[in-house]
Amino acid sequence: MFWKRFKKNKLAVIGGILVFGLFAVAIFAPLLAPYDPDIINMEQVLQSPGAAHILGTDDLGRDVLSRMIYGTRISLSIGFIAIAIATIIGVILGSISGYYGRLIDSLIMRLVDIMLSVPTFFLLLTVLAIVGPSIWIVMFVIGLTGWMSIARLVRAEFLTLKEREFVQAARSIGASDARIIFRHILPNALTPVYVSFILGVAGAILMESGLSFLGFGVQPPTPSWGNILTAGREYMEVAWWLILFPGIAIFITCLSYYILGEGIRQALDPKLKI
Amino acid sequence: MYFYRHLCNICFIFSASFFFVHIATLAQNNQSNSFSYGDEIIIGSSAEASNLIPMLSSDSASHEVSGFIFNGLVKYDKDLTLIGDLAQSWEISEDGLVITFHLKKGIKWQDGTAFTADDVLFGYETIINEKTLSAYKEDYFQVKKAEVLDKYTFKVTYEKPFAPALASWGSLVVLPKHILEKEDINKTEFSRKPVGTGPFKFKEWVPGQKVILEANDNYFEGRPYLDGVVIRIIPDPTTMFLELKTQGLDWIGLSPLQYKKQTQSEFFKKNYRKFKYPSFSYTYLGFNLKHPWFSDKKIRQAIAHALDKEELVKGVLLGMGNISTGPYVPNTWPYNPNVRKYEYNPQKAKELLRDAGWQDIDKDGILEKNGKKFEFTILTNMGNTTRIKTATIIQYRLREVGIKVDIRSLEWSAFINWFIDKKRFEAVILGWSIGLDPDQYDIWHSTKIKEKELNFVSFKNQEVDELLEKGRRTFDIEKRKQAYYRIQEILAEELPYIFLYVPDNLPIVSARFEGIAPTPIGIGYNIEKWYVPKNLQKYRIQE
Amino acid sequence: MLNYLSKKSLELLITFFGITLVSFFLINLAPGKPTDAVSDLNPRMTPEIRAIYEKQWGLDKPVHIRYFIWLKNFSKFDFGRSFSSDSRPAWDKIKERLPITILINSISMFFIFLIAVPIGIHSAVKPNSLSDKLTTVGVFVGFAMPVFWLALILQLILGVWLNILPVSGIRSLNYENLSWINKIFDSMRHLFLPIFITVFGSLVGISRYMRSTMQEALSQEYIVTARAKGLPESKVVYKHALRNAILPIITITGLSVPGLISGSVIFETIFAIPGVGQLLYQAAMARDIHVIMAEVVIVSILTLFGNLLADIGYALADPRIRVK
Lengths: 274, 543, 324
Known about the structure:
A: 0% strand, B: alpha+beta, globular
C-alpha cells in the first residue's frame, strides 16, 4: 500500500533516488574523489573550474570536487546523527509526557517551552568548551536543541492512543507501563516521527551551514559543505565556484530530503499534519 | 563573527593603534594654492567604538575614534622616538626618577576652556582611582608622586626608573577637569560625546551605524583641511569591500586577496590609491615548553627547519608581508636583523629528529620513539582564517618529515580560559600586536608564567630576564638597543616560538584625497593635513 | 475559562523563570567571564586590576547569589549595565536597536502571510493539481536554500554587478538631506534584500501549515453541509473554512519569534543592520551577561505571549476547553 502510493509520486521518487545517490557518494568517497582532499598545492591556488580540476581549486590549491565529495560524508552524517539524537530524546520524553500526563507532563512541557527560548548558542559554547570542538559535538548540540517538536508530536499521539481499547486491554491483563509504552503505543505513534525525521535531516544540514557561517560549525581543515562555503566567502568575487557549488550541494540535498519526506508523508497518511 | 577575530588582534599593547593617528607629521612646507578646505572622509570600521574616554576602552575601534579627538602630552614621531604633543618639552632627571613636562600655552579644549596642567593631574588621579575601570592603571601605579608646579608645568616622580613611563603620558590621561570633575567617570555621558583638544571634534554618534566628527576650527596645530570624518560601522569584511566598490567608503583596510586580486581593475586604479607597509604585529607558532617533547631545543629547531616561512607568506598572505625572525618589526630601532635563521630544509629536520631518537620504525610515515608516535595538536582561535590556513600548511609540511599534526580551532574565550591559561596545549598559533615601546617584559620574563599571564609557553632564561630588566630601567636608547638585540639572538637560538610572519597593513584610500605622505609606519598620522581639491569634493556639511 | 486562563498564566510564569534560570547558569557555565574582553592576553591587566574589575562588577560572588541579585534588580525592571567598556544600561543598548529589528521582522511577517496564506489555501482547495505541485516545490526551494548563501549571491549580483541596490546598512549617507519621500524610498531600497531573504526562507512553514489546517477545515461536516445547501464554492472556502483554518496560524506567529531572532543574527551581520540580533551575537561573544539576559527576557516574553495567544485562540475555538 505504502509503496504503491509512494511510487505514484514522481517527485518523491526522484528525491529518494537523489538521497540514495548522495549516500553512495559518501560511502564511496575515496573511490570517487579525483584527488586527496587535503593535498595543498601552492602552485595551483584558486584555479577556476577546468579539465584538471572540474570544480576548481581553493585558496590552498586543494581540489574543490574532492573536498565536496568528502564533505558529503560529514554533512550527511551530521544531518543523520544529529536528528537521530533529537528523535531519541524527543520520543522518550514525548512518550513519558503523553503516557503519564499530570505533573510529569506539565514538567516536560515546561522544559520544552524553556528549551525553545533559551539561546542555544550558549549550550553550544558550553559543550564545545567542555568536550572540545569536533564534528560529534556539532551533531550532539544540534540534536540537543532539536528534540522539542518531536516530543510534542509524540505526546499528542500518545494522548489519543492511550485511551484506545487495545491499550486498556493490555493494561487489564497487567502489562507493565514500559511494555505498554514501547510495545503497544509507540509503534502506532511513530508515523509522524518518520516524516519529521526525514525533514529534520535537511534542517540539520542547513543548521550546520548556518553555524559554520557564524564560525561554530565543523572546523576546518575537515571539509563540510558549510565550511567550504563559509571559507569561500572571502573569495566570493574572484572565485565564485567556492561558494556556488557547496551552496548548490546543500540546496539539492535539502530539497531532495524535503520532497522525499513529503512523499513519504503522503504515502503513509495524507491527512498527517507536520 | 569577525569581532572576536578583531579582539585577538588587539590583545597586546593597544598603544600601537591609538598613537597611530597621532604620530607627528613632518613639517609640510610645500603649502601651495591647491590646498583647499572642505569635504569629508568616510572610513570603514569593522567594529563599533564602545567608549570614547581613552582610558576606559580597550578596543582599537574606540581608540581610533578618540585618537581624532584627544591629544597626549607626548606622541611618537615617524622614527618611533617620542616628541611633544600638548607638551612643549620635558626633562628627565639624571637618575631617571623625575620627569618634568612643560606644556604648550594657549591650547583650548573644544568647548573653549583653557587647557592646563590641572587637566593632566585630574586625568592621572582619575585613572589611579580604585573605582575607575581602566585596564591601563599599571603604568600609573608606578608613579610615586604627581604634582602641578604651575599652570603649565607638570612633574611626576617614580620609585624606579621605568623607560615605558614617558610614553604613558600620551592621550590616556588628559581629561577636561572642568567637565568631568563632578561626574562618575564610569557612567558619564561624556564617554559618548567627548570634548578633547584634537583636530576633530565630536558631532554625532548613530548607534550601530556611524560616528561623525567635524573639524576643530581652533586646533592648536591649525584647522584640518577636511570638514569632517565619518566612521561607518560595517562588521562584515566582505560587505565592507562591496561597499567600497560602490564608493560608499573612502578608506578601509584591505585583505591581501583584495589588495592583490580584487582591486586591479581600471575602476580602482582611477578612484583609489593603495598603500602597503608592515603592521606592528607578528604571527607565531608557540610551543608548550613544559611538554616533554618540546622542552628539547633540538626538536623545536628541527620543526623550524621543516617549515618554509616564505611559503607561508606566499600562501597565507599572498606575499603581502615579510617573514619574521623575532618579536620586533623590521626597520624599527629595536629590530636585530642578524639573528640565527632556519632555512627550509626537511632533510636537516629529519636528521635533527633522528639525533633526538625519533625514527619511523614501522614505516607508516610517522616517527616513533619508545613506542610513541610523534603526533601533536596545534590550537588556534576559531574564525581566524589566516591562522587556520597557516596551521593547515604547517600540518602539511610537518607530515613530510614524519610528524602528524591535528588542528583544532576554538572559540576565543574557551581557547584562553580552558587551554592557554591552564597550559593544556602542545602548540598554538597566535599573534601579538607589538607596542611602540620595545619593552616585552610580560611576554618573556620567567616570573610571568602563572595563570592569566602572558608567558604561557613557560619560557625561562636567566640572561633574558636580566636583559629585560635592564632594558626597561634606562632611558638611554643605545643601552636599550643593546639589550633588545641580545634578547633577539637568544630567542632565535632557543625558539620558544617559531616566529612566522609579519603581515602588511594594506589601506586603500579614495584618490580624491591629497596630502597623504606614506611612511614606514603608515598613512593615518597626518590626516589633518589631507585635503581634497575643490573640484573633486564630494560631501558637503550642510550648514 | 477564567480558571483555564489563570492556570495557563501560572504555567507561563514558571516557564519564564525557568528560562531565565537556565540561561543565566548556562552563560556562566560557558568558559570566560564578561571581563575577558578587556583582560585576556592584555599585558597591562595585572591580577590586582583584574580583581578591581571583578569586585566592581560583583563577579566575585558565587553564581546563585548573582542570579538572585539579577532577579531582584529585574523585579525593578533594572537589567543592569553592559559589561563592555561603554558601561551603558543594557536596556538602553537594546532599546535603540529594537525598532529596526521589529520593523524588518514585522514587514517580513506581513509579506509572509500575504503570500503564504493564499498559496496554502490554493494547495488545499486543489490538492495535487499542477499548480499545487509547483507552489509546493517553489516553497520547498525557499526552505532548502541556505538563506545566507542566497543573501550573498543577491548581494553580489544586485549590489555589485548590477549596482541597483545598496549592499548594506539601513540608510544612505546623505539620508538627512533627503526629502521625506526620498527618505522612504531610500529606506525601502535598503530593506528590500533583508526582507526578501527573510520572507523567502519562511514561506514554506506557514504555507504548509495553512495547507494542512485548510484541508482539515474543508473535511469538516459543516463544510459538507454548506456545500449541500448549495452555497457557492468560493463562499464555502473563504467564509466558512478559512475562518476556522486561520486561527491556528496565529500560533505560528508566537512560536516563530525565537526563530526570527536567530535569523536576525545572520542577516543583520550580512547586511550590517544595527539590530538586536547583531547585538546578541556581540554580547554572546563577549559574555556580556546583562545584555544577553535582557535579550533572553524579551525573546522569551514575546514567545510566551505568542503561546498564550495561541492557547486562548484554541480555547475559544474548542468548546471542550471553553466549557471546562
